[in-house]
Amino acid sequence: MKHIAPGAFALARPRAILTMPRADVSNPAAMLAEIKSAFEEFKTANEQNLKGKADVIVAEKVDRINAALSTMEGNFQKAVDDLNAKVAAAGTGNIIGDIPGDPEYTAAFKAHMRKGDVSAAMTKGTAEDGGYLAPVEWDRTITGRLKRISAIRANARVQSITGAGFKKLFTDRAVGSGWVGETASRPATSTPQFGQLDFIPGEIYANPAISQQMLDDAAIDLEVWLSDEVDTEFSRQEGIAFVGGDGVNKPNGILTYVTGAANAAKHPWGAIQVQNSGAAAGVTLDAMIDLIASLPEELSQNAKFFMNRLSVASYRKIKDSNGNYIWQPSPAVGQPSTLFEAPIVQVPDMPVVAAGNIAALYGDMEATYLVVDRVGIRVLRDPYTNKPFVHFYTTKRVGGGVYNPEPMRALKISV
Fold first, then answer.
1. CATH superfamily to which 94-172+191-308+347-415 belongs
2. Which InterPro entries did the record assign (predicted)?
3. Is the CA virtual torsion 347, 334, 316, 258 positive or negative?
4. Number of C-beta neighbours around residue 155 at 10 A
5. I need a labelling partner for 227 at 20 to 30 A (CA). Which of 28, 135, 291, 294 fits?
């Protein structure tokens, strides 16, 4: 093997990245080809490392390619999402979702944003407390973007409500039975009991301020600008809460329902079962196989892996008993990479692979986690509190919690 001076290699990049033209972020197909090429080089270098034929230089190369692959995957997914958004915007014109735009209402809303003027058309969105709901098409736009950005929301069950909360009854399944003879007595058996789970929305808010002169003079679309700012922040806050929220004025995060966590005893059907990784600070093949096998077949039809993007590098090095890598790059544009042929969903707020962390979830998120939306996003224009700035007090009420713990498993980094 040809050795390279450490100083020279420090600036080196994987050959697949050096020899191939940098993929245009507007061309997902080219980006996918680059990912696949880099993965082939990763496998070659990693094989040398596993067979003990490598030195420090090759080991470092493996880590560099692995890190580069993780970055490329993130860029690839962002490019696909951005293109989908552009196609959707170009194709809908003045229609958002399945609801035609209302020019009169939109014009009134823009007037309200700029100067606080209210026309009769604005009464369509007047709340009982005097606040103003955003136009239906603006509300739908934010909802769509939240779904694209928040991986948990995009994969979970979403329930819209019109009241203060949502209640769900569960039976403990404790029905008794027994075998009897033809004339034997039939004493009473145990009867199932019911339990109740409450899903109470918390409130998330934003209160951006714009000077009155900027509102008077701006030539931009205020709806689009403000909704962009709000939905990005709302999605960030939702993503954090759906994973680890403590339920205080916010959703109960899914990780709080795993065995040993704060809500382990909350659900009548128990906690989300935990599988140890088999290593103090890493993941073993046997643990991954046990994790998948622990999920009953009837619950695994829509199973996916949910993990932090940075954690994928740890799974990429694992091979099965036939020497095949269990991680595979995206087979086509619009499809995710896989582990054991199960799709990988990148969740930024999931913990990374480190001792004691829940570094992956495996299962059917739609059957497991419930997101509760209190219908509507409310915008209250406040030109008085902080003159000469106008504040746009924007609120959304959302809750969440585990609907059924049985279709989900958690991988804990532990021996």
1. Major capsid protein gp5 (3.30.2400.10)
2. Phage_capsid (IPR024455), Phage_capsid-like_C (IPR054612)
3. positive
4. 20
5. 28
